Amino acid sequence: MKNLLYIFFTVCLFACQSEELTIISEETGNELSLVPPDSDEYLTYRIDDQMPVSYSSQITCMLQPGQISISHVADNGTQEQHEFRLEFGKPGGLPLGLGKYYVINGLKIHDYHGNLINNDHSSNLEAEITSIGDKVGDYIDISFNGTYIDEIGGEHTIVGLVHAYRDN
Fold first, then answer.
1. How close are the terminal C-alpha atoms of the chain, in Å?
2. Above 50 in pLDDT, residue 17?
3. φ and ψ at 93, to 5 degrees?
4. pTM for the structure as a whole
5. How far is CA 80 from CA 45, 70, 85, 168, in A?
6. How many Cα atoms sit within 13 Å of 158 on the Cβ side?
7. Which CATH number is associated with domain 37-165?
8. What is the 3-state secondary structure (H, E, C) of the chain?
9. 54-89 pLDDT tens trace
10. Cβ atoms of 62 and 69 closer than 8 Å
11. What whole-number distance in Å separates Cα of residue 62 and Cα of residue 38?
C-alpha cells in the first residue's frame, strides 16, 4: 500500500469558506486535489488523475448506532444507474463523534467515468468527521481518502468530501 501524506487547508474568498483537500503520495509524489462545488449539499470525489465526480442532489446521510452511511443513487437517463455508497464507524455500535475512522464496511461506486468499485475489494480508506449535526436537517461534514484495489487488481487513490444534511 502507498504511504500517503495528507494536507488539509482552507481557502477563503469573499467571505465564503471552502475546504480544499490534497493528498500527496510519498512513494510517487503524485498529488490529488479536490475543491468542493458551490452547493448547499454535495458529495464529491476524485480517483487518481480523473476529473472530480460531484453530486448535489439525491444524497442520503444516515446515522445508526456506531455507523454513518452516505449514499447517492441516480439513473442518468440511459437506463444505467450510478451509485456511490460509503459506510464507516466503530465496531460494537459505539457512539461516533468528531475524528478519524477506518472505512470498515467498504466503498461502492459505479459512476460515469467507468469506475466500478464493490465493497468486496480490499481498501485502506479513512474517513474524518469534521462536523456532525445534532438533529435531522443539520449538516454532517466528512472527508475521506486512501487507496483501494479495483475488480482487476489495480490500486487506486481516492479523495472525497461530503457536506450533507443529516436524514435521521
1. 36
2. no
3. 70, 20
4. 0.76
5. 20, 20, 16, 28
6. 28
7. 2.40.128
8. CCCEEEEEEEEEECCEEEEEEEEEECCCCCEEEECCCCCCCEEEEEECCCCCEEECCCEEEEEECCEEEEEEEEECCCCCEEEEEEEEECHHHCCCCCEEEECCCCEEEECCCCCEECCCCCEEEEEEEEEECCCCCCEEEEEEEEEEECCCCCEEEEEEEEEEECCC
9. 888 889 999 888 888 888 887 766 666 778 888 888
10. yes
11. 23
Three cell numbers, residue 159: 479523495
* 41 closest CA partner among 139, 144, 133: 139
Of 78, 29, 28, 75, nearest in space to 55 by CA: 75
What's the CA gap between 157 and 144, in Å, rounded?
Answer: 11
Q: In this predicted model, what pLDDT tens digit does every residue of 98-151 receive, in sequence order?
A: 998 888 666 888 777 777 777 666 678 888 999 998 899 999 999 888 888 877
Q: Which amino acid is at 58?
A: Q
Cβ atoms of 55 and 43 within 8 Å: the answer is yes
